[in-house]
Amino acid sequence: MNGDGGRSPTTLDPHRHLAAKHRWQPIEFAFWLAMLLPFVLVPTYLTLASQIAITAIFAVSLDLIMGYAGLVSLGHAAYFGLGAYTAGLIAKAGWGEPFSGLVVAAVAAGLFGYLTGFLVVRVRHLALIMITLGIGLLLYEVANRESWLTGGNDGLQGVVIWKLFGRFDFDLYGYTAYAYAFVVLFLVVVAARRLVHSPFGLSLRAIRENERRMPAIGADSRARLHTIYTIAATAAGAAGALLAQTTQFVSLGALSFERSAELVTILVIGGTGRLYGGVIGAIVYLVARDRLSGMNPQYWYFWIGLMLIGVVLFLPSGILGGAAVVARKFFATDERR
Amino acid sequence: MTAAALRTIDLHKSFGSLVVAQDVAISLPQGARHALIGPNGAGKTTLINLITGALQPDRGQVLLGDDDITSLAPEQRVKRGLARTFQINALFAGLEPLEAVTLAVCERLGVASTWWRHLTTFRGAIDEAFEILASLNLDAVCTRPTRELAYGQQRLLEIALALATRPKVLLLDEPAAGVPRQESSALFEAIANLPTDITVLFIEHDMELVFRFASRVIVMVGGRLLLDGTPAEIAAEPRVREVYLGRTRHG
């Protein structure tokens, strides 16, 4: 609410308006504090919590290209899996230091993202979906065949990760794992937040809204898309590396189409283009999976299918989209400044 | 003599056997206000597309000032100072006008790929964007999503986006198209207030606009230039009436 004549149009301050849009909302602080609760409230579920954090990073990376730039990808697991195997192989080769392993794995995934990006940014719609699908399938098959390197169907064994900072062991209870994953998630979201609220982020949204108009304002949209695709691949690789390091195992599933499709589902449930949608989606999906498969292991996919249909029909912008609508109704007194 | 602001030399474009532009040669002097008229299907928008690079000609050249821009990509031509608006709004529906124009300004300044700084730190760009919007009387609505603006306001936003690129040459494709009568005066005013150092070519069917703002009118029919002259000359020309109304050749 404005106290200083915000109603009169001539006193509209564009800077104030944009600053209000981009500043940290109280609910974000609350969210991050809540994410620390598992340590205290449900310490037996810390392994699940670290899985959620890892999937959240993965989902946020997809949101950057799908929610903000508008590129639908059915092969994002390629970068996740590549990051996982790279981190795993580095550790297996004898270098088990987690942070450096994470960085190298993320860079490797980012490099692959940069190279495949040349293909990806040239196409749209159906062709884009097919190309991303193809990239994922290709990498899966390579990993499958080169089982001397990847362990094939048995997965990558012998991944030994050293203690974090030389002190914290990756114990069975998952304290270290969740702390590690949480910090990486926080850093990734803060970086993504910066990006999304920057001129670059604005240009991505513009590309999504009307790509045709971009050259007419002097923008090379392909170059922008290539950049964000590379960044998203890097983040996905980091998530994969975290998985490899915290579970000390990598399986072909990390590269699979199922993984990519599942990720799209998670993001749609949470809400695309809202930065936190991937995190919310990961929480809802993985908690649901944990609860439902506990109750009925065979049919839990049925419930996920139902959830997806429900979300698409009743909450087309995902959970966060629905929450935004509710918030607008309740806080309707907040006049546009 | 200074070079013409925009010139085309014998532009030719055909799609198979359909010739959409034939030996089109126009020349716009600095600061000109020229109108391009012609019946539907005459190739006016095609010509704009050829000039802006959305379409590649089979033959011919496009010169912006002294530079041959025929081989440049559309976004590069914009950076050299050639801007256009679209006949059917090509706006960013989900963005606010303030965001859209700020983005256009950032693109011009070459900072739009900065991902590590908040948009709010680019105060100069935001101020400039707001100024452009205010000059078109869009400042009151610039923080609403574009899709919520009235159609006339959206047409003005089209112009605002083009102006944000600080063009030397501005191509307006039917700026008044679809604008209801009561909103068109704002549009006319905007066109009248365009900086005099910008060269403007506008396609229009609205003859009121043509007579009010154009110093010269070019008539295009079937992909070719028919003639050009002052508005008064064109109005008196029987051939022009013919091409719009068609020769009566029954039986």
Search tags:
heterodimer; A: 337 residues; mainly alpha; 15 helices; 0% strand; globular; disordered N terminus; B: 251 residues; alpha/beta; six-stranded mixed β-sheet; five-stranded antiparallel β-sheet; 9 helices; 11 strands; 35% helix
Briefly summarize what is shown:
The complex is a heterodimer of chains A (337) and B (251). With 337 residues, chain A is mainly alpha-helical. Chain A has helices at residues 14-22, 26-40, 46-68, 77-92, 98-120, 125-145, 147-150, 175-196, 199-209, 213-216, 221-247, 257-270, 277-295, 300-314, 318-330.
Structural class of chain B comes to alpha/beta
**How many helix segments of chain A?**
15
Strand content of chain A: under 5%
Number of strands of chain A: 0
What is the residue-mean pLDDT of chain A, rounded to a whole number?
A: 89
Instruction: Give helix % range of chain B.
Output: 25-40%
* Oligomerization category of the chains in this entry: heterodimer
Order of helices and strands of chain A: HHHHHHHHHHHHHHH
Poorly predicted runs of 5 or more residues of chain B:
none
Net shape of chain B: globular
**Mean pLDDT across every amino acid position of chain B:** 89
For the biggest sheet of chain A, the summary is: none
SSE order of chain B, one letter for each helix or strand? EEEEHEEHEHHHEHEHEEHH
Portion in beta strands of chain B: 15-25%
| Helix/strand class of chain A | mainly alpha
Number of strands of chain B: 11
Runs of chain A with pLDDT <50, length 5+? Answer: 1-9
Give the strand order, joined by hyphens, for the main sheet of chain B.
7-8-9-4-10-11
Radius of gyration of chain B: 19 Å
